[in-house]
Amino acid sequence: MSVSVSKLNRFLFFKLPSAYWSGVRVQRITDNECTVTVKHKWFNQNPFNSMYFAVQAMAAELTNGAMVLLKIRKSGKNISMLVAKNKANFTKKATGVITFRCVDGNMIDDAIKKTIETGEGQTFWMKSIGIDEKGDKVSEFDFEWTMKLKTKS
Fold this sequence. Notes:
The protein is α+β, with helices and mostly antiparallel strands. Helix content is about 35%, strand content about 35%. The chain contains four helices and six strands, in the order ααββαββαββ.
């Protein structure tokens, strides 16, 4: 099965409904880049009238995870993926439409290759940056991903 924008957004509705109802949507995905948007609204705000940090984290993680999923599918191998660690930095109140973008898709290739060749788990870091409608950075997320080859039981 291929990974596309519409399939990813449908996946959100059925498998990650909190992200879907918070307004997280994939806008673009390629092998090396993914863009996700989310609009600040009453449902996803914090008491300070800006976007709740967890909503930003969901959107940022999706920019990474969607590409990891895409490349695992393309490998044809049964590989598991999981976020092991994350770091975040918030620089401005997130209001309006926030666009999260990750351009670290090339980092996934080496990890998949090593996982398949060695059978050992791999870890790697990916970054996603959130930008508001004015072009100002509102947040930056780093995620450490782990992947390993699943063994047949």
